[in-house]
């Protein structure tokens, strides 16, 4: 005997109930994703000071001009927001979990980089933190590509930028 019929449930009611529960769990995932993104945006400049210390450092030869930073970060944050919304609303539960976990970990490392670099002036520790952040952005990219090829392509600049930033941080640690 069909277990669903045995308990007086119809299959379409069970499916609707499961679908409703999934939708109810997606809202907290989306909120959590946007909370992590907000912490990233607000925290990224938390320890930056205009005391002249950064300008006194010897820069790596591959340091891009300042205006590039002003272009790439808004783009990265916008695409991360779109990816967060789309993945948490539509991807499988395991994909959402992987996306949110690795995104959260990468944000912790990125914010740790900012603290170590600008506040503690621990350039080696900062370089290690940003390299760790770059490693944890790879699963974000893979989950996104698995769900949407176009959205994955849109996230490639973020992955590239984090890798460049990690190499710059390492360059600062070697030169100073």
Description:
With 176 residues, the protein is mainly alpha-helical. The protein has a single domain, classed as Ferritin (Up-down Bundle). The chain is built from seven helices and no strands. α2 (11-43) packs antiparallel against α4 and α5 (93-119) packs antiparallel against α6 (123-147). The longest helix has 33 residues, at 11-43. The protein is elongated, with a radius of gyration of 21 Å. The N and C termini lie far apart (74 Å). Residues 1-15 have low confidence and may be disordered.
Keywords summarizing the entry:
176 residues; mainly alpha; Ferritin; disordered N terminus
Percent of residues in helices comes to over 70%
Indicate how many domains the architecture comprises. 1
Relevant CATH superfamily: TspO/MBR protein
Instruction: Please report the total strand number as a whole number.
Output: 0
Shape: elongated
Based on CA atoms alone, the radius of gyration comes out at 21 Å
What is the overall number of helices? 7
Global structural class: mainly alpha
SSE order:
HHHHHHH
- Kindly state the mean pLDDT as a whole number? 87
* CATH topology category name: Ferritin
Second rung of CATH, namely the architecture: Up-down Bundle
Poorly predicted segments: 1-15
* Strand residue content: under 5%
What distance lies between the first and last C-alpha atoms, to the nearest angstrom? 74 Å
The biggest beta sheet is recorded as: none
CATH class reads Mainly Alpha
């Amino acid at each position: 005997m069909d277990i669903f019929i045995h308990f007086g449930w119809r299959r379409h009611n069970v499916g609707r109930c499961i679908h409703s529960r999934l939708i109810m769990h997606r809202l907290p995932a989306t909120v959590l994703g946007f909370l992590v993104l907000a912490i990233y945006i607000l925290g990224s400049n938390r320890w930056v000071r205009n005391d002249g210390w950064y300008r006194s450092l010897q820069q790596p030869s591959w340091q891009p001009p300042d205006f590039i930073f002003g272009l790439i970060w808004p783009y990265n944050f916008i695409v991360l927001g779109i990816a967060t919304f789309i993945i948490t609303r539509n991807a499988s539960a395991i994909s959402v979990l992987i996306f949110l976990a690795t995104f959260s970990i990468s944000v912790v490392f990125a914010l740790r980089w900012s603290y170590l670099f600008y506040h503690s002036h621990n350039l080696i520790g900062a370089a290690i933190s940003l390299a760790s952040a770059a490693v944890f952005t790879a699963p974000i990219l893979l989950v996104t590509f698995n769900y949407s090829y176009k959205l994955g392509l849109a996230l490639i600049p973020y992955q590239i930028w984090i890798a460049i930033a990690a190499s710059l941080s390492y360059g600062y640690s070697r030169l100073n």
